[in-house]
Amino acid sequence: MSNSALDPDSPVRPWESLPPDDAAEPLPTRTATDRRDRELELAAVEYACPEEIGDVVEMYEDFDERHVAQGLPPRGDDALREWLAALARGLHVVARHAGRTVGHATLVPREDEEDEDAGDESAGNGATADEANEAERTTGKREEGAGESGHELAIFVHQDYRGAGVGTRLLETLCSYGERVGVEDVRLLVERHNRPAIRLYDGIGFETTEAWGGTMEMRLDLPAEPGAGE
Q: Which of 4, 133, 161, 208 is placed for a possible disulfide with 102 were both Cys, Cβ 3.0 to 4.6 Å?
């Protein structure tokens, strides 16, 4: 995916500038079993300091490069930590097995990106022409249809745990948590040839909203949970 809010080259906020969210209500940890009978722990996590992302960084450092899509996840410890720091305002869920992080999914709010880009539909610094065209297309669509509670999705599962339903468990948990905190819609970009990912999104309820070249945009509207966002 090449979603703007998920771009590893997006401006990074220093660790020290991340505001504490004392009012946030903790989200419950869930348990599940994958199709290989492995016990999973699914937990929402907050990346307020480097120590809290260490286990996720370890997963990405061992991530098979064949599954890297359009530069995500970035390579290298420093690049990974900066990328995760830039996503700190998002909602994050990890899947753990035997104390090891094996999957990570996040919903990143889009409103900051739109505010920064108001009046300028070009892609960020260093973007290729194709990336700029893609950013213009997705930015225009968001301005037409997305509210302030719209979020972009990223999900990654370690290669040793692919094909066992871990991605489905992660995504179901993330969307459920999203409902609780007032997320209204979730969007993503996926490459047309990535059939396993498309099947995953279809199974959760995502619908294709637009397609061009080798890319598809998909969207899921989340039902509002009573009291969410209050």
A: 161
